[in-house]
Amino acid sequence: ISRITDKILPIVKEWQERPLEEVYAVVFMDAIHYHVRSEGRIVKRAVYIALGIDMSGKKDVLGMYVGENESAKFWLSIMNGLKNRGVENILIACVDGLNGFPQAIEAVYLQIEVQQCIIHQICNSTKFVSYKDIKSLMADLKHVYAALTEETALNERSCSETNGMKNIHAKIWEMEKFEVSDCQWRCRVLVFLALTLVLQRSN
């Protein structure tokens, strides 16, 4: 195994340091956590993954990195690494809810739009409702995040009547404790819709 590893490692290093495109439309960033054996002990490791979509719509894994724990500081080093490999601009970064993650990205790419992952945002939003209301809320939220344009999404967000019945989410948006989540939907989730036309025209 060690002989095979010795042959593969230089190829992996070359792949990790290869030049990248100057501009990416979207870059998805997340970490996967694994339990591995290290020095006779089972320890937890985080594999950081950056998946980019260039302006022609082609997907590419920009990099994979191993760290002890997922942290915004480690992501900052990855952002600097992407910059050094030729990435001058990223239109949208799609991330989870890790504290400090958006700020780490924006420290390197000042004009970037940061969108929170839809799944993470849905999970955060459902914390504010009772179990019996979740199904109705999920149906309403889908009209927001599945909208084709920002205007349509905001209209769905503001809508309070569907088939003559008051929407559950219309009440929830008005709840004081939901204000932070509402702001996240506007500022961190729906940003990609504002750039829909730009991306379509680039293709």
Beta-sheet strand percentage?
25-35%
State the helicity in percent bands: 40-55%
With strands numbered from the N-terminus, the spatial order across the biggest sheet is 3-2-1-4-5
H/E element order? HEEEHEHEHHHEEHHHH
Shape: globular
Could you explain the architecture of this structure?
The protein is of the alpha/beta class. It has 10 helices and 7 strands. The chain has helices at residues 2-16, 72-84, 101-108, 118-126, 131-145, 150-158, 168-173, 179-189, 191-194, 196-202; strands at 23-38, 41-54, 59-67, 89-95, 113-116, 161-162, 165-166. The strands form 2 sheets. The protein has a 5-stranded mixed beta sheet. The chain has a two-stranded antiparallel sheet with strand order 6-7. Strand 1 and strand 2 (41-54) form a beta hairpin. Helix 4 (118-126) packs antiparallel against helix 8. The chain is globular.
Task: Throw out a few tags for this protein.
203 residues; alpha/beta; 5-stranded mixed sheet; two-stranded antiparallel sheet; 48% helix
Concise structural overview:
The chain is 48% helix and 27% strand. α2 packs parallel to α3 and α5 runs antiparallel to α6. The chain is an alpha/beta fold and 203 residues long.
List the helices and strands and how they pair.
Layout: H1 2-16, E1 23-38, E2 41-54, E3 59-67, H2 72-84, E4 89-95, H3 101-108, E5 113-116, H4 118-126, H5 131-145, H6 150-158, E6 161-162, E7 165-166, H7 168-173, H8 179-189, H9 191-194, H10 196-202
Parallel strand pairs: 1-4, 4-5
Antiparallel strand pairs: 1-2, 2-3, 6-7
Helix pairs in contact: 2-3, 4-8, 5-6
